[in-house]
Amino acid sequence: MSDTPSAENKPKKILIVDDEPIIVRVLESRLKTQGYEVVNAYDGQEGLNKVRLENPDLIILDIMLPKMDGYRVCRLLKLDDKYKHIPVLMLSARVQNEDKEKGMAAGADAYITKPFNPKELLDTIQALLQT
Asked: Does 41 map to a domain?
């Protein structure tokens, strides 16, 4: 008998792209307790590289990032046939309607502002992973 989980049992992989280590740690801890596999990146370019390397099931993406902002990262992923199917949840301190509209225009599947409600975040992640 093999110990490797079948595709159905394999935990969903979530990539967190945020330049604030405390946010990354809080998210990572919360997601791991929910059974998700978590991968981290701390700037936009590293985030793009990790998507290509790890092929995550979902991306939590900050907007204000070093090297490349979240809007650009999201746009580049959504224009690429290989990655456009991956849901992108933008998680940002930018609370203006225009920021949210810009995020959705870049291709984000959801937009949540910081500070975030943990239940809302987990519910949104679960909904995005089921589509």
From this structure: yes
